[in-house]
Design goal:
globular, mainly alpha, 5 helices, two-stranded antiparallel ribbon, about 120 residues
């Protein structure tokens, strides 16, 4: 339970860092960041595996690089404004940059915290 909570807080912090660095990603409040992190976690847990299954041949042909497109699409889907008004992704490039940066920041913080705790 403790590791799950740490990963959740890391995701919220990573999303706030992304909104601070990437110009096309907007988070209006801490509550919006928490809601977006919950929805991103849900989407990555349930929808992403289905998309990866259907795009498996394309992913094999591109040596796994199509995974970046899937991640950017899901990041854009959550930030499209349809589900959460406080989290907005304004362009495809912002979506790609945001998903890459969020993954990197999340990985780095989880790595640091897992070695310390």
């Amino acid at each position: 339970m403790r590791k799950w909570l740490i990963r959740f807080v890391v995701s919220v912090f990573a999303l706030l860092v992304v909104s601070w660095i990437v110009p096309g990603v907007k988070v209006t409040s801490l509550l919006a960041a928490v809601e977006a992190a919950i929805l991103l976690g849900f989407v990555n847990a349930f929808i992403r595996p289905i998309l990866k299954l259907f795009t498996f041949p394309l992913n094999c042909m591109t040596f796994g690089l199509f995974s970046f497109v899937i991640n950017a699409f899901l990041f854009w889907l959550v930030g499209s404004g349809l589900f959460l008004p406080g989290f907005r992704v304004e362009s495809a490039l912002a979506s790609l940059e945001g998903s890459l940066l969020m993954g990197f920041v999340g990985w780095l913080l989880n790595y640091i915290l897992n070695n310390r705790i």
